[in-house]
Amino acid sequence: VQLQASGGGLVPAGGSLRLSCAASGRTVSRDGLGWFRQAPGKEREFVASVSWSGLFIYYADSVKGRFTVSRDNAKNMLYLQMNSLKPEDTAVYYCAAGENITTSPDYWGQGTLVTVSS
Question: What distances in angstroms separate CA 84 from CA 37, 58, 64, 74, one per listed residue?
Fold first, then answer.
């Protein structure tokens, strides 16, 4: 599975961005999908995930109420709508796929940089 993330950029605090992740190589309709991020000087951390069915969705406490994760199995796509962005959301965002998506993804995409200015 190859994952390609896009949609990052520079946005002022309070603004919004929508990240997309395109999967190729095979369908990911039976995989959990998720987003992780790594801020400068910090370890990579879990952001959000969605089960293959879309029924089970999890968020890190730091993004609850501001971020929304979704998927389109027909298009092999994953999305992350980010609202009310804060400077501390600045990071490289990675999409991932796998069975144990929140703890140990099997596949990783390259990152897309999100910079939130204060």
Answer: 17, 19, 11, 29
